[in-house]
Amino acid sequence: MRATKKTLTEHSLANLLVPNEHYNYFECRHEHPFRYQFNNFEMINAWWLVEAAFLAYAEPPFAEPRFQDAGLPNVKFFSGNSTQCYVAHNDDFIIVAFRGSEVRKRAGTNGRDIRYIVADWWIDLNTDLVDSGRDGSVHSGFKEALKEVWDPQGRADEDKALKPYLDTISNTDGRRRSVWFTGHSLGGALATLAADQYGSGAELYTFGSPRVGDRTFADHFRVNAYRFVNNDDVVTKVPLPGSYRHVGQMKYIDSEGVILDNPSLWVRLKANFRRVVRNTFNLGLLRLRRVLPENALIDHAPIYYAIHVWNNRVR
Predict the structure, then answer these.
(1) How far apart are CA 304 and CA 11, in angstroms?
(2) pLDDT at 112
C-alpha cells in the first residue's frame, strides 16, 4: 500500500487532550516495519517512537493491545506516584515509552481551562539542579520522578523496577536486544535520564521535551539522541537556558511541517518571525496571568508531532 500524507486535525479540545482513544496508532506498521538494526537517525523509527510516546498516555487496557497489534507482544506497565511508562518488546528490540504530563479538564469548568493546568505545571516546576550520579547535574524533579520506577528503594525486583527488568529482557536467549527510549513532554525528559542511566546500547528519540541537565551533563551524554521540536512549542524552551542545556540533535518542525536538522536560531527566526515574537510576548504574560497561549499549546500536542513525523516520512 502506497503511503499517503495525513491531514492535520482541527484544533479541538478532543484532539489536543490525552489520552486520545480515537487515533489509529501504528496505522502503517506492516508496510513500514521498525528498523531496529540502525543506530543512526531513521525517520521511520522516529514515527514508531512518536506513536509509542503518544500511546503511553493511555491506560493499559487500551494501550497494551495496540502495542501487541504492532508486533510487540510483550508489554509491561510501570507506575509510580507520578511516573508511568510502558516497556514493549519482541524478539528483536525493546521500546520504553514514558508518559508525559497528564492534562485533564477541571471539574465544572469549560475546556479552555486546560491552558491554566499546563501553565501551573510550567511555572511550579522545581528547577533546582542536583548531581546526576554520572556526569553533571540534572533537574531535581525529573530525577526524583525517574527514581519512582527505575529501581525503587534500591530493590533489584524486575516486577517493580524498570532497570532490572530491562537488564533481563535485553539479554535473554543469548540475544542482545536494542533498547529504544522515547517520550513526549515530561516523558521526553524522563526518557533522557533513563537512557543516560541505561548507557551502552540505548537509543533516544524525544518529542517536545524540556531541558533536562546542565552543560556538563549535555557534553558527556553518550547516547544517540534526537529531539523533535514542533515550531513554537513552549515546553521545549524550559527550564530557561543558562544553567540548562538540551542534549541530542535537534529535528525542528517548521511552520510548514518540514523537519530541519539542527537549524540555527536565525533560521528559525526567519522562518517563523511573527509567531516567535508573539510567543515570546505570551511567555511574559504567562507569568502574570498563568494562562498558556493557545498556539504554544497546539504546537506541544503529541498528535501534531505524530502527524508531522509521518508526513515527513512520506515526503
Answers:
(1) 10
(2) 44
> Which residue do the cell numbers 541537565 mark?
213
pLDDT, tens digit, 9 for 90 and up, residues 159-218: 679 999 999 999 887 778 999 999 999 999 999 999 999 988 899 999 999 999 999 999
* Predicted structure pTM score: 0.87
Three-class DSSP category at 294: helix
Instruction: Report the distance separating Cα 69 and Cα 101, nearest Å.
Output: 26
What's 29-314's CATH class?
alpha beta
**CB-CB contact of 198 with 166 (8 Å):** yes
| All cell numbers assigned to 128 | 533546582
Q: What is the DSSP string of 48-62?
A: HHHHHHHHTTS-HHH
Q: Give the CB-side neighbour count of residue 145, counting CA atoms within 13 A.
A: 25
Exposure letters 273-309 (e unless 16+ CB within 10 A, then b)? eeebeebeebbeebeeeeebbebbbbbbbbbbbbbbb
- Bridge partners of 76? 87
Apex 10 CA angle, 6 and 11, nearest 5? 125
User: Torsion over CA of 187, 207, 117 and 244, rounded to 10 degrees?
Assistant: 80
Pairing between strand 224-230 and 202-207?
A: parallel
CB neighbour burial string for 83-113, b if at least 16 within 10 angstroms, e if fewer: bbbbbbbbeebbbbbbbbbebeeeeeeeeee
